[in-house]
Amino acid sequence: MGFWSGRFEGYSFNHFKKDVLSGTIVGIVAVPLAMSFAIASGVKPEYGIYTAIIAGILISLLGGSKYQIGGPTGAFVPILLGIVLVYGYENLLIAGLMAGIMLVLMGVFKLGSLIKFIPRPVTVGFTAGIAVIIFTGQIGSFLGLTDLEQHEYFLANVKEIATHLDTFQLKSIFIAGLSLALILVTPKVAPKIPGALVGIIVTAVVTALFFNGQVATIGSTYGAIPNTLPEFHIPEITWDRIYVLLGPAFVIAMLGGIESLLSAVVADGMTNSKHNSNRELIGQGIANIVTPFFGGIPATGAIARTATNIRSGATSPMSGVIHGVFVLLTLLVLAPYAVHIPLASLAPVLMVVAWNMSERHHFAHILKLKSGDSLVLVTTFLLTVLTSLTLAVEIGLGIAIVLFAKRMSDILVVTKVLPDHNTKQGKVVPHVVTDTHDCPQISIYTIEGPLFFGAAQTFERSILSSLHPKPQVLILRMRKVPFIDTTGEEYFRNVVRSFQAAGGTLFVTGVHPTLKAILDANGLAKKIGKDHFFYNTGEAIEEAIRHIHYEQCLGCKHFAFRECTKLSIGEPSEIKINYVEAIN
Question: Full-prediction pTM beyond 0.90?
Answer without folding.
Answer: no
